[in-house]
Predict the 3D structure of the following.
Amino acid sequence: MLKSLRPLFQLVYPPNCLICFAPGNSICSQCNSKWLTHTKTGQINKIPLYFTNYYNAENARIILAAKENGNKLAKQLLANSIFTSLTKAKLDLNLNGEIALVSIPSSSDSIRKRGRNHINDLVEQVVGIAKLQELELINLPILSITRKIKDQSNLNKNQRMLNMSDAYLAKSPKSAFKDLIIIDDLITTGASIQEGIRALSVINLRPVAIITACAVGAHL
């Protein structure tokens, strides 16, 4: 019984570092310290973007481990990264009071395949970290997918923009929030973020910032 569970256990807690493959830990202390770097900034549709890491092959392993394998340490890295950027955004933009976090939605197929809602779970982790720091955050999952969209991994920027066009619907929140921040774990072309901004604009909402764990350099 225990032997049969070993492959599953190693998916969640790999025996080697996810980034440098050093033996002994899921994420070694050296890679852990390098991953949580200073917050970087950019813009998407003239909205401030905050992130701590550039997207590359090494950081892709963290994203995949958290998203596909449910690795707890990888998920914690993503949550800490987003929270670090959130504290800088709060200071830069002079945000006071409760902040609503609006996540980019996952498809129902992805949620069913993984057995969990990765991005919603990630936002809940960030909210939990904020509570320990006495910061007022609320998870506000008001975006949903309205139609079938293709897997974007092999699509270029123009194809992704077309693929995401009018794909989201924003539901009006029950309470009014002054400050909304869009949250995602990774931004590559920005197509999903721009569609999220469009959908929110339909209900007269505009985010004050966008926060992700990793982003490509095109958004600087």
Q: What stands out?
A: The chain has a mean pLDDT of 87.
